[in-house]
Queue: 2 jobs
Job 1
Amino acid sequence: MRVDVPVDDGVFAITPDGPRLLGTRCTACGTYTFPRQSGCPSCTGTEMLDVQLAPRGTLWTWTVQGFPPKAPPYIGESDPARFVPFGVGYVELPGQLKVEGRLTESDPSRLQIGMQMDLVVVPLSGDDAGNRVVTYAFRPICAAGS
Amino acid sequence: MTGVAIVGIGMHAFGRTDGVSGLEQGAAAVRRALADAGASWSDMQFAVGGSASAGSADSLVSTLGLTGLQFTNVANGCATGGTALFTAASAILAGTYDVGVAVGFDKHERGAFRVDSRSAGLGDWYGASGLALTTQFFGMKLNRYMHEHAITRRTLAKVAAKAFRNGAANPMAWRRKPLSEEEVLASSMLSYPLTQYMFCSPGEGGVALVLCRADQARRYSDRPVYLKAVVVRSRRFGSFEVLAPSLALEHNAGPTVDASSAAYEQAGIAPQDVDVAQLQDTETGAEIMHMAENGFCADGDQEQWIADGETEIGGRLPINTDGGCLANGEPIGASGLRQVYESVLQLRGDAGDRQVPGQPRVAYTHVYGAPGISGVTILSR
Ligand SMILES: [Zn+2]
């Protein structure tokens, strides 16, 4: 059976409802972090509660990675002949925080600040048996629109 | 602050110098700075230096001379040079030493910086997922800024064309060929909206300064330049910085605004008093955004300033008169001190073909780097 393995199981979880980002919330001031932290960057508190972050939000800003990242650390395709540009952005999760991640869309004419996004996983690398190492990414909700 | 003077400056040319190590470039810069001050290495009571990838600065003593002086290594990313200067100035202000050297040098591999996720306090997943690229941050910060403040891509290209024009007039610069705005816009898209020629590249080079107590400056130089302020700040909660897996919902101005306002206060100088500025231009958008963050104009005003040529040599506020990072490349350890070197040349009236007219009196420098650190200096004749 093919298996999707998260690039790090402390960063997101694959649940029956889809992928969920794993963050923390400060019990003193309510500040959210991603990924998990042991201390609060806002009030310096140290009681942080593990939480799953909202799987939807709005695109706050974005760019397109136009050249292959160096490998290591990158584990995706780094051969310039086969590399395909990918989008990167910050998505604002309402009432929580802005999370940085890859985007499934990389065409600048189809990316707009303020558009609705949801959370999915995308493959970074795979083995011959079809198992894949995946990371999280944000996908425009109305992919066919505009 | 009245107490510290720059009495000697030295540089090893920026760019690519095959066969010459980063340390040797640092040593060359120190020797030139000493010659400029009419001093010798054995006169130096202390030194502060740093490089990101070219070895420990204190090993320079092997080639400069084993005089037994105190040598402090500093490492602070792109603010390494600013931190070397801050540390050296502090030692003089404290009365610990009368005269010493600040030095920065580097030699990086070709291509974009390879980020070590762990040393940046991030998990391996971040780099593995293709997110550990400083270039992405620059594209995203700029894209948001252009969206909010109506800056156009044409303006991005104008800033690059200015940098290469100024670089062509600077014998120490790496990129000395002018490029048109069209060539800049047509180069390959590295990180939208930024093209290849809108970005600086990691490079090589070295810069050294001889610093002394202000009341001893005339022993070394008949044209001392005084350090009116030197400030380094890290980020506060809510700022938007490089290599950040998440950002707070609320927005804070960031370390450049903090460092800048503290420097103006320390110097007792206002932005409109500045005659020439060197601002971190890792890419063209950074120069544009840093104009506002350093207090020189309101957000969005850059579009008109740049259209009117106000940041050109001869304009209201000449910026990056030596070609900046775009034309000089970015040897991390040396970059901040290069800005100070250029400022001293401009204040002395020694900047040759790129000299700012009108005998500038006040110069300003600003560096920014990972993971959200800024260094500002204000200098005057
Ligand atoms: Zn808190």
Note: Chain A has a mean pLDDT of 94.
Job 2
Amino acid sequence: MKLFQYIIRRMSWGALVLLFVSFFSFLVIQLPPGDYLTSYMARLEKSGMSIDNASMVALRHSYGLDQPFLVQYGKWFCRFIQGDMGVSFLYTEKVKVIILERLPATLLLSITSLLVIYLISIPIGIYAARRQYSVGDFLAAFFGFIGMAVPGFLLALILMWIAYQGFGVSIGGLQSPQFMDQPMSWAKAIDFMKHLPIPIIVITMSGTAALIRTMRATLLDELGKQYVTTARAKGLRESKLINKYPVRAAMNPIISSGGWLLPELFSGETIAAIVLGLPTIGPLLYRALLGEDMYLAAGCLMILSLLTIIGMLISDIILAITDPRIRLG
Amino acid sequence: MTGENNLLEVKDLKVAFNMRQGDVTAVNGVSFQLQRGKVLGVVGESGSGKSVSARTLLRIEAPGKITSGEINFCSPRHGEVALQKMNTTGELIRSIRWKEIAMIFQEPMTSFGPMHTFGNQITEVLILHDKLNKADALQKAIESLRSVGMPRPEKVITQYPHQISGGQRQRAMIAMALACNPEILIADEPTTALDVSTEAQILEVLAERQRTLNTSILYISHNLGVVANIADEVMVMYLGKVVEHAPVSELFSSPKHPYTIALLNSIPKIDKVYNGQRLEVLTGCIPDPYNHPAGCKFHPRCPKAMKGICEQTEPIQQAISDNRSVACHLYTSSINTNR
Ligand SMILES: Nc1ncnc2c1ncn2[C@@H]1O[C@H](COP(=O)(O)OP(=O)(O)OP(=O)(O)O)[C@@H](O)[C@H]1O
Ligand code: SF4
Ligand SMILES: [Mg+2]
């Protein structure tokens, strides 16, 4: 019952946060001088064409871009909660359709990445903490610094170069061109699996490095606590007592780390995703922001925020279930 | 081992910590014997090495290391064993821990893991050492909690450490320590978190254990008053050394070492009238652990220090009667200077 109330409370907070995010993202998108039409005109002029002022004004009016900010926001928000995210200027297509097209790949990549991060960083973090200052700990720390320091896009370029040089394949996107419009088949699935490792490595690199450090530091902290000595004094086997008591306690920050990992994962390391040509939402948002395509940008931001809020909610709920101090107050 | 009734014999034990700032010898040549069914009190200021000595008996002294000495234990199942030689993660020492030597830890707030119920943590030792099944272990855990005066033990076994008070947690700790009926119970300031009446109850529980099951107790405390109540013998520690060891009544009626005398003077006595007089307080504080004074470690604070002797030669622990010993030049018949 307490847990249920907790979840309800968390969800209302999530809704409130989303409201704020929507307002401020709309505001930020409007901040740069000009709007979609000014950048559209600039592009036309570059290619030698021009457009007269009268039709500019007419266009601006028809898009509603001449209205005050709050009116634009209000209208957009009302439509948004009814599931209508407006139309993209760049793609002349419904924002919802564009985003839905990219949602499966975004979810698949980010959730797989999250699992990969946990699977790699938790055991390594435990090892590094238990063998503090050993060669293995040193190697983990070294990998950690590299992982944090090397930007994702650089890693993407290096890996693509290696794939190209070593295997003679150009690995970009998530599919080879010949499968693009094909129905699902074994060959297509295998082709897809071949494309997966590089994006996953690139996306998980910094998160894994960060989480190894978090796990190691938290576990070291727990290992020094009295209850570990108590468990040892009770005659339990060392590996058993470590896994039962301090590792269990050190899992909490790891579970809540899902919260700060997710935004990064959902946007899929935007620059790296652009380099890799991934069909995810991150690059879409980037393009929308560059082109001052405000409805598309707002739509992307809202979906990314929504995913992040849902992810944090899930991690909070898992935390509440696993930690008696939260569950029982 | 000398003496029929000796359960534990510690000889010249030294335990050191390698720290970045230098080595700290927290236990610096401690010797004592613990007899079956007796209570040995250990007193001394903070940092004198009481807890480290106690943890070493269970071989959980890490990151400290035994640098010399012996710990001989008369194990009921393994015969006479030398604890100092054991592998600290080995099968043998693990079977002795808690089943034969159990310990009540000083820090009640953090002695239990935060993520498991008391039921889980107490039954754990019963399942491990007494090979009980879960249901029997739970029953035994409830009994054990009840025996230390825990209210509503059936409820407590379903609870987590953060749900009960520090005092109740300490009772749970004591219940857990007694659950497997150990031969030796080490109680490291078991009543610091408790109010006076609870403290009295706990002392009674321990005293009863000693009477009925002949459990030997190593009782560590700052509080000489408590020790006077429960102990048969008292060992006074200062900077990792035993400075005086005596039967409890003799220690209180005729303390020998100036440090013991100072400790006794610093506890208020009800029958003494302090008309405006201040209590005598030990002056100065424990010296830097990295830099012990030469000669007698107590000489900078000792009111009876003898110039030319005390700051030069370290007194050794010497018997002054059948059952008493003291480490002080005042009681050394011939001072053998090594310079
Ligand atoms: N884990 C450790 N690492 C380094 N040094 C330690 C450690 N534990 C204890 N020591 C050293 O051992 C000395 C003795 O500590 P110990 O805990 O035995 O004192 P104590 O007599 O139990 O004091 P208290 O009455 O405060 O409990 C301390 O001064 C400290 O320098
Ligand atoms: S040896 Fe000297 S300094 Fe040390 S306690 Fe005895 S009298 Fe005091
Ligand atoms: Mg202590």
Note: Chain A has two domains: 32-84, 102-328.
